[in-house]
Amino acid sequence: MAFDSQNLDAFHWLADMIETVEVGLVVLDLEFRVQAWNGFMENHSGITATQIRGQQIFNAFPDIPKAWLTRKVDAVTTLNTRAFTSWEQRPYLFKFRNSRPITGTEEFMYQNLTISPLTNSSGKVDKVCLLIYDVTEFASSKRALERANEQLAKLSMTDRLTGLLNRGTWENLVDAEFERYGRYGQTTTLVMFDIDHFKAVNDTYGHLAGDDVIRHTAQVTRDSIRQSDSAGRYGGEEFGIILPETDAENAHILCERIRETIAQSTVNTTAGDIRYTISMGIAQLTGEPENYMQWMQEADKALYRAKEGGRNKVVIYA
């Protein structure tokens, strides 16, 4: 049947639109051989339609997940319905380099994918059409927002100077550990400690040097505890550590290691080299405290006794 002029014009503008539209269009037969490959795909893959036509897509792009795409296409052809996959489920089908200057921070193009069934004249599905949408700008913005939110969440939980948990977050964990002990009775120990004569450090060397000392204390603490332990800056020069599944004796061993490391260290500051010590109080949780605050008070009393005993000591509450 011959095309009339109107039909021929419609065919030309339709073909032109398919070639120039900013969406990838790929037609595959049911053996996954490429039947159509538009300009978007040529531009981003560097492969022309002539070069790829008739090739199986998995041979041309071996990094495409064959089992996954096969399952998707089987479902589309069997049910004769579209399937959609977003970049959040699978970042891309074709690993194209990101060529957008605005989102140049992303290594590759994030893609949404639609798979549509194509039927022949008898109504049988014998091909599928893949539509590949470049959503890099949207994905990049969302990922940046998620990173910013994660950073804000982290900042809201940590002390800016030391990177340890801040007072509110750490105290909430003390409360949670107290409740856990009430339910399961597992051994747990609390440590409170502070820097000896810290006011003299600030008065002699200045507050910036004092901050260096606080940071050094936090770093030694962080390097000494286990991943399951929780260290926080309680306020000023005072710190705390939660030691789950640890009795007072083992807590004493850990605290002595921290105390000795600090006593043998020199903090180099712009105002001069600083030597300092810490005092530590330990309280293993028993059935006596009625709430977590009373448990903290026990550790505080042990710390006070360490101060009274001459400082640079570790004392267990009894």
CATH topology of the largest domain: Alpha-Beta Plaits
Secondary-structure-based class equals alpha+beta
Give a short account of the largest sheet: 5 strands, antiparallel
Q: What value does the Rg take, in angstroms?
A: 33 Å
| CATH architectural arrangement of the largest domain | 2-Layer Sandwich
Distance between the termini: 101 Å
Rounded mean pLDDT is 90
CATH C-level category of the largest domain: Alpha Beta
- Oligomeric state of shown chains: single chain
- Walk across the major sheet and give the strand order: 2-1-5-4-3
Form type: elongated
Query: How many structural units, i.e. domains?
Result: 2
Number of strands: 12
Number of H- or I-type helical stretches: 11
Low-confidence stretches: none
Assign a percent range to the helix content. Answer: 40-55%
User: What is the CATH superfamily label of the largest domain?
Assistant: Reverse transcriptase/Diguanylate cyclase domain
